[in-house]
Amino acid sequence: MSRLNYHHLYYFWRVAVVGNLTHVAKDLHISQSALSAQIKQFEHNMNVNLFERRGRRLILTAHGHRVLAYANDIFSKGEELESFLRKGSISEKQHLSIGVLTTLSRNFVESFISPLLANADVSFSLTAKGMSNLLNGLANHELDLVLTNRPISVDKKDPLWQTQLVSRQPLAIVGPKGKVINDSFPNGYQDMRWVLPGKNSEIRAAFNSFCATWQYQPDVQAEADDMAMLRLLARDSGALVVLPPVVVKDEIEQGILEVYQRLPNVYENFYAITTQRKFVPEVLLALLKQHIDTEVSN
């Protein structure tokens, strides 16, 4: 006989999703001690530790994350079945939870999600967080997808993360409209002030290499890691800024800024990160395929 008790699995699933034993016990109308005992019995039967207990907190173990992935599949299908039995149909509406790196260009995000806005059968939520919190959200299945401009290293023995390049934007020198320097770099740039991405960013490293090639030392007035802040500084400082033109496309269209010159063979890469799971929403697969196909064709 199978050792898997689906009643126990359901209790585990509720606690793993909610993250609070007391709240789940109250919702299920059982005592906290009884709920805890059921989960311990489940762990004992399966001979695996699913939670680490740190004070009053329950933290999923690596096995716990994997079991949660299966439980999500099992009980989401169960909810669909219940809907079918009650209503005679299954809702076609799909929802995506998308995490966004806080420093990412909002114009890129808007461009990425535009296919979802045109689909009445899809709803989505956007959550902006730091990288570690985003990856935790993926691991806990709170997020379906993370958008970032930072690649992550992959453990080839256990590739939890799946990273796909979905866009690459050329970098350019952008400045006030009407003051373009009509000469090859670095001629004409000697007395210019600069606003640049932070020293640890890939964009800054690329620009530093470009300047070193020409033995040019930029007069850096300000630095910012946040693309939204770089956009504001580009608009209001009068200085030159290095960034993908997509970040300031509205200002370029309005005639406030213009591209002075593109940096040769230098790009900012944008990645979509997902985690391995047995069930992947069809709308997510279609969205990634659309952007990947577009990037390949470009």
UniProtKB/TrEMBL annotation:
SUPFAM superfamilies: Periplasmic binding protein-like II, Winged helix' DNA-binding domain
Keyword tRNA processing among UniProt keywords: no
GO molecular function: DNA-binding transcription factor activity; transcription cis-regulatory region binding
InterPro entries recorded: LysR_HTH_N (IPR000847), LysR_subst-bd (IPR005119), WH-like_DNA-bd_sf (IPR036388), WH_DNA-bd_sf (IPR036390)
Keywords: DNA-binding, Transcription, Transcription regulation
Domain HTH lysR-type: 4-61
Similarity comment: Belongs to the LysR transcriptional regulatory family.
Protein name: LysR family transcriptional regulator
Organism of this sequence: Shewanella psychromarinicola
